[in-house]
Amino acid sequence: MHDMIRKTLATAALALLAAPMTYAMETAPAAPVASTATASASTLRPALLTAPGLLKADEFKETDVWGRIRSGYAIPDIDNSLVARHTQAYSVRPDSLKRISGRASPYLYHIVQELEKRGMPTELALLPVIESAFNPQALSTASAAGLWQFVPGTGKDYDLKQNMFKDERRGVLASTDAALTYLQRLYTMFGDWQLALAAYNWGEGNVQRAIKKNQALGKGTDFESLAELMPAETRNYVPKLQAVKNIVANPAQYNVALPAIDNQPYFTAIDKTSDIDVAVAAQLAEMSLDEFRALNPQFKKPVITGGEKTKILLPKENAEKFHLNLAQWGRNLSTWTTHKITGARVSIASLASKFGTTPEIIRQANNIPAKSTVSAGSTILVPKVSASNAGDIADNIIENAVVAFEAERSASKRVKASSGSRYKSKAEARTSKNRIARNTSSKRKHR
């Protein structure tokens, strides 16, 4: 029975290899998707969804992740002018695709593995090309962050922690799990992967309203029938994914050379039992800071907090080095603690002096803008200066700490009067001081 199912799936997968694919631009804004369901694809997908784990890498005998992705294509193709335009745009910029592929190489195996476990179409592994160009530090004007571009609200809906110390919307493991769960939920809601993708970009409520509007008018409710009701970004979103699919399906046809990505795990997760500085963790793993942060982009501060609940991702060989070096370390793993600002108008210089460091280090550790200071009630990161604060940062501080900034007050200056021999009164001097203005981050509506 298993052999028969495997042969059926293999035949269907081979048939799908002929389907054109989509491509995404590193510099172009994300655009919506257009999709049309076909009977053959809709028949195949439920079979895959009910048999997760049947499609294994060793069954494909693939040595490259790109081939593994091709083998699992299952979303019906679309072929229209938007697809042609985006395919052309990507293919004439092979260097851009090469850079995106290089950034994707540490993450793609894990994403494909998770898609196969859930029985989901493997071309969804290409979605971060559209969303973020596979840059985990990507941040949109709508405050969407990470590979999968979660806005804060949706991130919280899918249990992605966002606090002063970390933002799991950027974390590879957590954000991928959340994105695939969200996409599965949307597919269950609409029964159509193209509409699910449109909802991922535009919001399920908007797609539902568009469906109802077309139903009332006696029109179709597939992606392409609804496209005219969608904003330009969503209308282009699925065609962009289709364009990337087309290029990945047959790179030579488009004169694109995709860098090989080994079909094996790039990283492993190791447990962390106490606070550790990012610099120390990278040193123990014998990695550069940039390499370490590429796998652990969720950590926002120079110290990784969270005790046993937090994992660090490292390439396998570096994980072995980490454990060996850690056993011989013999020093504090973390040099940072927190300090709560209780009074108003505390200068950065005075804070630096109190904690034996420089204003530049205080500003850098806490992302304090130039010519700003921290408001009363804020919690900031400071160097440890005594044995009394040698322990880990407490969980309640990690979860609840907030920081706010305000403009620094200029020092009181004696201002010469017009005669040049007298100074303005104290009241006049007070009115000449800079007013304090709080910085507030702009918010945009969740998609």
TrEMBL record:
Basic residues bias spans: 432-447
InterPro entries, per the entry: LysM, LysM_dom_sf, Lysozyme-like_dom_sf, Transglyc_AS, Transglycosylase_SLT_dom_1
Pfam assignment, any one: LysM
Protein name, per record: Transglycosylase SLT domain-containing protein
Residue ranges of the region described as Disordered: 411-447
Transmembrane feature ranges: none
Signal peptide feature range: 1-24
Any one GO molecular function term: peptidoglycan lytic transglycosylase activity
UniProt keyword ATP-binding, yes or no: no
GO CC, any one term: membrane
Example of a GO biological process term: peptidoglycan metabolic process
Organism of this sequence: Telluria aromaticivorans
CDD domains named among the record's database cross-references: MltD-like
Ranges for domain LysM: 337-382
Family: Belongs to the transglycosylase Slt family.
Protein keywords: Signal
